[in-house]
Amino acid sequence: MSTLATWLDRLETLHPSAIDLGLDRVRAVAQRLDLVQDPPRTITVAGTNGKGSCVATLSALLIAEGYRVGCYTSPHLVHFTERIQIDAQSVEDEAVVAAFDAIEIARGDITLTYFEYTTLAALWLFRESSVDWQILEVGLGGRLDAVNIIDADACVITSIGLDHTDWLGDTLDLIAIEKAGVARGQKPAIVAQTDAPETLYRALSQHEAVVLANGRDWRLEGRQLCWQDHVNMEIPEVTGLLESNVAAAILVLSSLGIRLTQNAVSKTLASLSLSGRQQRLQWCGREVWLDVAHNAESAALLAKTLRQNPTNGRRLGLFAAMADKPLRAMLAELESEIDAWYLPAVTDLPRAAAPEAVAAEISNPAVTRYASVAAAWEAVLEAASVGDRIIVFGSFVTVGAVMQLMQREED
Q: Distance (Å, rounded) from C-alpha 61 to C-alpha 378?
């Protein structure tokens, strides 16, 4: 009997390309598995930043209303099963293996990418668990992403930024068109960004979506959500989550007939947190920040939060990201918040930027390179004194590796 670990290793080799955008292959297998017709009520979440925040908010609010909710997100930080959750709990390894076995039988001679396989597994598990709602986070783009085989009842587009330009286009205008592809005719499409490209709205119009745009159809005045010419809700403060993404989650549920009260929203979101999003911990007397900021926009948000929470100690940064990210722009956002840099190699990922390439984008001479995340983490812990701040940011792989190391040290 296969284990989840052996399955995941196998998925890396089943398709000749790690990324192969298009819906024909994955839709064909989904139809064989009966996953496309009559799915649970579905909300698809697209965007460059803030997708995980929006999904977490939607899940918490729906669960609090008594619904059974499936959430599919990517990538994971520590364990693969973080990607597929039912009622905010990761599914069991054995359940994912059963889903993979079913997909293997159904696919025949159709090859699938790792992400396509895992998307089908999530949809299969949500059906088997009879969820009332499924919240699907787009992995890359929108129009040709595997989750888009499902005709969603509504979508949220959190933001448009320069990311994955090799696949989505090298301008915000082109990327916006791709992300708009998750919208459906006569269905709500909530836009959380106030200055989204005009091409987004043109594309949403072509899809005949019912658009609710931040700054046009709704707005935030401080923390007050204003919609339909009056104040609808005060948005609670949730660490690491933008008010606009929380508001978009509330609006999409409202547009689908879920009437939320102020008391219910405040009570539910008071306990909401998201791992690896401006996560602030105390570790052996050091202040540790963990943030999967892996593009310029998210790096700017992290820098803003750090400035709002100044420290008297030294500020030590551990960073690694993929080579196709805008490294110079990302690092420029954080340079004023970091006194010394610790740059590890991520040897098991060919896409990862080499520490030498990262170092070349940093003007601060206090830069040290390491052969692994573990070596960099050990060095930064040794260098940090009580009262110092350690900032770990970059890719999910980087932050997840440090989280695993911290867990081992606790055991």
A: 39
pLDDT band at 168, cuts 50/70/90? low
Query: Is pLDDT of 132 > 60?
Result: yes
**Cβ atoms 120, 134 nearer than 8 A:** no
The DSSP letter of residue 231 is E
Q: Coil, strand, or helix at residue 137?
A: strand
Q: Which residues contact 196 (CB under 8 A, 6 or more apart)?
A: 157, 159, 160, 176, 213
Closest CA to 252 of 333, 155, 143: 155
Instruction: Tell me the pLDDT tens digit for each residue of 222-235.
Output: 899 998 866 678 99
Smallest CA-to-CA distance from 318 within 271, 277, 379, 276 is with 379
User: 223: number of CA atoms within 13 Å, CB side?
Assistant: 9
Residue 270's CB is within 10 A of a number of other CB atoms, namely 10
| Residue entry with tokens 């790792």 | 114
Question: Nearest-CA neighbor of 374 among 398, 393, 410, 350?
Answer: 398
Torsion of CA 307, 311, 313, 314, to 10 degrees: -10
CB burial string 102-131: b at 16+ within 10 A, e below: bbbebbeeeebbbbbbbbbbbbbbbbeeeb
What whole-number distance in Å separates Cα of residue 221 and Cα of residue 231?
Answer: 9
- Helix, strand or coil for residue 255? helix
Pair of tokens at residue 29: 């297998």
- Domains in the chain, CATH or no CATH each: 4-269 (3.40.1190.10), 279-410 (3.90.190.20)
Joined tokens for residue 54:
């929006």
Give the total residue count for the chain: 411
Exposed (0-12), middle (13-18) or buried (19+): which is 16, by Cβ within 10 Å?
exposed
3-state secondary structure of 4: helix
Q: Is the pTM of this model over 0.70?
A: yes
Measure the CA–CA gap between 298 and 395, rounded to whole angstroms.
11
